[in-house]
Amino acid sequence: MPLGSLVIFDEELKQITEVIKRLYLDADAKVVFLIDKDGQLITSSGEVKDIDTTSLATLTAGNIAATGGLAKLIGEKEFSILFHEGEKDNIHISIVGQRLILVVIFNDRSSLGLVRLRVRRTSKELNAILKRLVTRASETLSSKENLLTEITDDDIEKLFQ
């Protein structure tokens, strides 16, 4: 899967948002975020009004990067799942498709086992959408490149006359 900026089309964003909403409900979470590895929030569902989503996205991406450094130090490729337990809230973080970060914040209404089970299913769905997205993006890029190669020097000269 190519690295770099991820372009998400409206159709896929709607599908991704529906998957995230379903995870929020099925896991009985407080909030669910989907973030790219650059720290950009893609979508969320749940109780976000009291959360600085920009900071959360950035810090989560930094956490993944730091943990990736730790993994390499001990000979691992990466740690695909992180869990932080607090007094009131818990955070489950997982990497999806090597480029997205799925964050589930939950409290005692739910359990780690339920969250992990639901995240596993959601990750499979998001991977399928991500594969379609990468294919669609490369097809779109390819058709744009073909359009550019069809423009001749004469065409450009006519534009500036």
Summary, kept brief:
The protein is of the alpha+beta class. 52% of the residues lie in helices and 19% in strands. It contains 4 helices and 5 strands.
Per-chain topology:
Elements: H1 10-26, E1 31-36, E2 41-46, H2 53-73, E3 81-85, E4 90-96, E5 100-106, H3 112-149, H4 153-159
Antiparallel strand pairs: 1-2, 1-5, 3-4, 4-5
Helix pairs in contact: 1-3
* Cα Rg: 20 Å
* CATH homologous superfamily descriptor: Dynein light chain 2a, cytoplasmic
SS class: alpha+beta
Spatial separation of the terminal alpha carbons: 43 Å
- CATH fold-level assignment: Beta-Lactamase
Give start-end ranges of low-pLDDT stretches.
none
Q: Count the helices. How many? A: 4
Describe what this molecule looks like in 3D:
This protein has 161 residues and is α+β, with helices and mostly antiparallel strands. The chain has 4 helices and 5 strands. The protein has one domain (10-159): 2-Layer Sandwich (Beta-Lactamase), CATH 3.30.450. The protein has helices at residues 10-26, 53-73, 112-149, 153-159, and strands at 31-36, 41-46, 81-85, 90-96, 100-106. It has a 5-stranded antiparallel sheet with strand order 2-1-5-4-3, sandwiched between helices. Helix 1 (10-26) packs antiparallel against helix 3. It is elongated and about 70 Å long. The chain starts with 9 loop residues before the first helix and ends with a helix. The mean pLDDT is 87.
